[in-house]
Amino acid sequence: MPKIFVIEDDESILNSVRKGLEKWQYQVENVGDWKNIVQEFLDFEADLVIMDITLPTYDGFYWTSKIRDISNVPIIFVSAAEMDPNAVRAIATGADDYITKPFSLAVLISKIQAVLRRVSSDNEVRSKKITVKGYQLNVLNNCLSYTGQTIKLTPTEGIIMELLFLNPNKTISKDRLMQNIWQGGLFITQNALNVNVSRLRSKLATVNLKEKLVTERGRGFRLAI
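RESULT FIELD:
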């Protein structure tokens, strides 16, 4: 039973989301102490986090950055705020997807199922490790290793690197990336993809791949390796 940690302070939305998720056999927990969110998240051992933006004390961007310091668990932002620039900021902070209020439960469930499928470690169809020119990508835990150095990627960054590793020196279109990451890119703009790639490129500097992730203007991205 997948475990979902809901960080939402609106009681009506929280109760609606909880009731809907439990019908789908998800185990749901919400915040009990707004000053102790990270510890409650760790104690619950969540498989996915649903994150609001406007919260007591600190906002959702702050708590996402704190969770990202210790975990790569998928995070879906749910907010009444305008899609841009908040969606882009959410993705930049470390979120994996974003939907706006009001939303249907069916849309939320669809998003959750898509994200959990992407990070599921029991997907036997995918190889566990992909090796290219001495670089090794573990697609089950999203770790990229090279000459003793290892960097941890978010699930979204892992999908981007997997496509690039499977197609070295070939341009991967933005549409293809968005289809793989966000099931067609519903509610997500290409700007959000660009932010993800920019964040990924910064991480790749550790393993000397930053300059090899090339942007093909008007086409997509290529791993020149």
